[in-house]
Design goal:
- With about 250 residues, the chain is of the alpha/beta class.
- The chain has one domain: 3-Layer(aba) Sandwich (Undecaprenyl pyrophosphate synthetase).
- The two termini are about 35 Å apart.
- The protein binds 3-methylbut-3-enyl trihydrogen diphosphate (IPE) (2 copies) and magnesium ion (MG).
- One 3-methylbut-3-enyl trihydrogen diphosphate binds next to α2.
């Protein structure tokens, strides 16, 4: 806590990003650097997530989206996928009640219903239990790929047109958004990617059209509260124009 005490005062509470999104990357390399198996990096990353969620609620961020597992991550060796899924189950079992106690709302973006039954059950329990809370929305982005999401939205929308429930002329950006997993959530204001990679990796492509991007070379398991503060401070210095001109 000590290291954050001084810089936290520099945050302008009136200019807080409402929605912060994080691509939690670099777990494997963090582990490799220490001569540990990759899964040790994922466990260390989960511990960091726990603290960043707590801190995000404290500083009154409204929505925290975290990329936990992509549709493309199924390409990894079976052992790694399996251990990530086990970790996910452990995390949910351990954290759901705690998140609820902290007034946090659990939201999932992605095809979570297609995950193994015990994980899907735990997710369902978490969503149900926390749906009437009023604090931070923890949006766990899971079994998610942005292109898949957009194609699914198109398909669902086409079905509505086919069934006569929607007119083609009615389709605009705000209607289209209703068909995305993130319906109801504001777009991210700030996207953070640790691990030194300067790419988006199929994360919320539609939603980040005007999001401010922030990168760090640190691996996710090394990410600290002060890194989040620094990202927010940087964000607060930027001028968002959305295609318009300086005010
Ligand atoms: C991110 O860390 C976690 C997941 C993708 C599940 P990585 O596992 O991608 O770690 P690196 O990028 O190989 O270091
Ligand atoms: C993005 O990281 C996915 C998650 C952090 C869950 P990846 O490690 O999968 O991305 P690439 O393969 O480096 O682009
Ligand atoms: Mg990676």
């Amino acid at each position: 806590m000590k290291d954050t005490e001084n810089i936290i005062d520099n945050i302008d509470k009136s200019k807080m990003p409402k929605h912060v999104a994080i691509i939690m990357d670099g777990n494997g390399r963090w582990a490799k650097k220490r001569g540990l198996p990759r899964i040790a990096g994922h466990w260390a990353g989960a511990k960091v997530l726990r603290d960043i969620v707590k801190f995000s609620a404290e500083i009154e961020i409204k929505v925290l989206s975290v990329f936990a597992f992509s549709s493309e991550n199924w390409k990894r060796p079976y052992e790694e996928v399996n251990s990530i899924l086990n970790l996910l189950l452990y995390y949910l079992k351990k954290e759901v009640n705690n998140l609820h106690k902290n007034n946090i709302i659990i939201n999932i973006t992605g095809e979570w219903q297609k995950l193994p039954g015990n994980i899907a059950d735990e997710i369902k329990r978490g969503i149900e239990l926390t749906k009437n809370n009023t604090g931070l929305v923890l949006n766990i982005v899971l079994n998610y790929g942005s292109r898949k999401e957009i194609v699914k939205a198109c398909r669902d929308l086409c079905n509505e047109v086919k069934n006569g429930r929607i007119n083609i002329d009615e389709i605009d950006e705000s209607l289209f958004e209703q068909f995305l997993f993130t319906r109801g959530l504001p777009d991210p204001d700030l996207l953070i990617r640790p691990s030194g990679e300067l790419r988006i990796s199929n994360f919320l492509l539609w939603q980040i059209a005007y999001t401010e991007l922030w990168f760090t070379d640190k691996y996710w398991p090394d990410f600290k509260r002060e890194d989040l503060i620094n990202a927010i401070l940087d964000y607060q210095k930027r001028e968002r124009r959305f295609g318009g001109l300086k005010k």
